UniProtKB/TrEMBL annotation:
GO terms for molecular function: ligase activity. Keywords: Ligase. Belongs to the ATP-dependent AMP-binding enzyme family. It comes from the Bacteria. Residues 13-376 form the AMP-dependent synthetase/ligase domain. This is Acyl-CoA synthetase (AMP-forming)/AMP-acid ligase II. It holds the Pfam family AMP-binding. InterPro entries: AMP-bd_C, AMP-bd_C_sf, AMP-binding_CS, AMP-dep_synth/lig_dom, ANL_N_sf. Residues 426-503 form the AMP-binding enzyme C-terminal domain.
Length: 520
């Protein structure tokens, strides 16, 4: 048995060493490490008093708020397993995750209560299994009531590093979501590797903007927890670029992780607004979840002059796999970097399991010490994701002569047209380079002659225009003929379907387009 501290042990340690240091805050309140540890113990005991037992699953549905961190630690203290649910999901999608995970209880923020109320008759939870954060409501156990009635002493439950910490359900862009089992040990090792590579320390102040149901926010939060650093939670329900700038300034934030869209919106504010906020405290920034273009990276580096920009590639199942360091951002534009301190070697395999030569496309497999423990109740998919000790989530990539990894696409997104394999991300890079294009999603649509043809859904910059003929001509200068989109559609930014972290839902977009075309 290894002897890594569990995440709850880490909070308890800092409660002893730095009891009065603020470890956690959102817009409503702040918690010292001592307060955090006390409330986590109360939650753990409260849930155990309801009849839950070590290993039981507890589903969580909330917007970003301070309670997320309390709940993660409270469940860990009790040996219960967190099942975070994306707040953007519909009632049937939420029901599927609660039922599939066999959750014994669900903790819901009052603003999202109706999402669960609409499916309550389908669920098999006990009457006391519905806990509500916020105002007291008949039929729900109030979160604060649960804590207030429980002991603040550590519960008599032995939790080992090998025990499961969370079931992280994938975003389901290619079908039913799968629950990735993340252990305490895996998350601890990932946290230490993250701290090592980024150079984080106990004096850092990390701003969590990405949804706390998502692995990105969880993994960085765990890193700061183990270090005893401070976590600031952005708890607005919609993204406000100026408010983000104000928080970076007023809270003296040293790090945050954002998707390219966040940076584009923030740095697109008027110069007078940008100059109002002092962001000199920001030392490190991460751009993740989607490729960032050269002009976006240059704008980030120009505005955050004291900061170093990083890019990571990883997955819920894998943790972080590659890192593109600050000095490589422009030199290796389009690459996600090379393997880092926390990961072993990377292999790119063809369908027969043989390694492909540099420059060729293969499925990316990595070997890390913090890989997930398999998919919950899905041994077939678990087996499919492993090749011996190597694990894959179906991403396709190529390695250049310098050893840098360039993601090509998801295996499931690949378009096959006239027998030719076409990777949407390659076409998206070409279309997206046009100065009028703000964002683009490429997918295949059924064709009786070719099997599939390439379609591009395009979002334009405000006050810019371009015709389909102009885009076709632009692509003809950059792509082989069979890769050029045969058709284009133009969308408003708000109509582009995305996950909570900004990734475009290609399958949703494709299905919507095909249905609209069928009805036309």
């Amino acid at each position: 048995m290894n002897h890594l501290l569990t995440i709850a042990d880490a909070v308890a340690t800092h409660a002893r060493l730095s009891p009065h240091k603020v470890g956690l805050q959102d817009s409503t309140r702040a918690l010292t490490f001592n307060d955090w540890n006390r409330r986590a113990c109360q939650l753990a005991n409260g849930l155990l008093d309801l009849g839950l037992n070590k290993g039981d699953r507890v589903a969580l549905l909330a917007y970003n708020c301070i309670e997320w961190a309390e709940i993660y630690i409270g469940l860990a203290r009790a040996g219960l397993v967190a099942v975070p649910i994306n707040f953007r999901l519909t009632g049937p999608e939420i029901a599927y995750i609660i039922e599939h995970s066999e959750a014994s209880a669900v903790i819901v923020q009052d603003a999202l209560m109706e999402s669960v109320a609409s499916i309550r008759s389908q669920l098999k939870l006990a009457e006391h299994g519905y806990v509500l954060i916020g105002q007291e409501t008949p039929g729900w156990l109030a979160y604060e009531t649960l804590l207030g009635a429980a002991s603040s002493n550590p519960p008599a439950v032995t939790v080992t590093p090998e025990d499961p910490f969370a079931l992280m359900y994938t975003s389901g862009t290619t079908g039913r979501p799968k629950g990735a089992i993340r252990s305490h040990a895996g998350n601890a090792l990932l946290a230490f590797a993250t701290a090592l590579e980024f150079g984080f320390g106990r004096d850092d102040r990390g701003l969590i903007v990405m949804p706390m149901c998502h692995a990105n926010s969880l993994y960085f939060s765990l890193t700061f927890i183990y270090l005893g650093a401070s976590i600031i939670i952005e708890d607005r329900k919609s993204f406000d670029p100026e408010h983000l700038l104000a928080m970076l300034s007023s809270e003296k934030v040293t790090f945050t992780s954002l998707v390219p869209t966040h940076y584009i919106m923030m740095l697109g504010l008027p110069e007078a607004v940008l100059k109002k906020y002092d962001v000199s405290s920001v030392e490190k920034l991460l751009v993740s979840s989607a490729p960032a273009r050269r002009e976006t990276k240059l704008a980030i580096m120009n505005h955050f002059k004291n900061s170093r920009l990083f890019e990571l590639y990883g997955a819920t199942e894998l943790g972080w796999v590659t890192i593109l360091r600050p000095e490589e951002q422009l030199e290796k534009l389009g690459s996600v970097g090379r393997e880092w301190a926390g990961s072993g070697a990377i292999r790119l395999l063809d369908p027969t399991g043989r390694e492909v030569p540099d420059g060729d496309v293969g499925e990316l497999y990595s070997r890390t010490s913090y890989v997930y423990d398999g998919y919950w109740k899905n041994p077939e998919k678990t087996a499919e994701s492993f090749h011996g000790a190597w694990c894959s989530v179906g991403d396709l990539a190529r390695r250049d002569a310098d050893g840098y990894i360039h993601l090509v696409d998801r295996k499931s997104n690949m378009i096959i047209s006239g027998g030719e394999n076409i990777y949407p991300s390659e076409v998206e890079s070409a279309v997206g380079a046009h100065p009028a294009v703000k964002d683009v999603a490429v997918f295949g649509i059924p064709d009786s002659k070719w099997g599939e043809t390439v379609h591009a859904a395009v979002v334009l910059h405000p006050d810019r225009s371009v015709t389909t003929q102009e885009l076709s001509a632009w692509c003809a200068e950059r792509l082989a003929r069979f890769k050029i989109p045969r058709s284009f559609s133009f969308l408003l930014d708000k109509d582009m379907p995305r996950t909570a972290t900004g990734k475009i839902l290609h399958r949703t977009l494709r299905d919507r387009f095909i249905e609209e075309r069928r009805q036309a």
